[in-house]
Specification:
single chain, alpha/beta, 2 domains, 5-stranded parallel beta sheet, 4-stranded antiparallel beta sheet, 42% helix, binds calcium ion
Amino acid sequence: MKYSPEVLVVEDEPAIAELIAVNLRHHGFRTRYAGDGIAAQRELDAVLPDVVLLDWMLPGQSGLLLARKWRADERTKAVPIIILTARGDEADRVTGLDAGADDYVVKPFSTKELLARVRAVLRRRAPELAGGEVHVGALHLDAATHRVRCAERDLKLGPSEFRLLHYFMEHAERVHSRAHLLDKVWGDHVFIEERTVDVHVKRLRAALGTAAGMIETVRGAGYRLTARQ
Ligand code: CA
């Protein structure tokens, strides 16, 4: 069954919150709602959402303060945050990103743009939640069903190998350093040694079997997935 990512909408204007929530649900997301920082904290304490859409201007604690607080907290630090705001100038954008937001959407925004940003953040933080199918050479990956096939043969992959392959497939033919892969596949708030990447690449190659050669080691640079093996 397809997993629907859950979005926590933190917005004090009910009309805007409702508009966002309706659009997200229409596109397969589940939504929860909080009208201020206290309610938002209660929602986060209960269950961690997959993404938080956080309005900057809220009664009580501002979205900026909340983002800083959640980034500093061990439990919530990896939850993707997109800040919503009417403030569009460069300095505010930088302040929002410095506070730990993953992205920044300026009001008024189109729901199409907002959905694209939510999917992009999910793809970076948790590619398996963003949905969609990718093909490279004989490899076929369906993120929604979590299936990977190689020339019609089903492959069994662990969760890290699945995310790694998904990332490679979405960025095929490009060389990625170990540090870059750690950042993109494991998340930049997680501390893992770079050689962990080698371990997962080794496992991934083993799982790929005859297609193992599609993942090339580029000496001194990192790894690349290529259709031209
Ligand atoms: Ca507001």
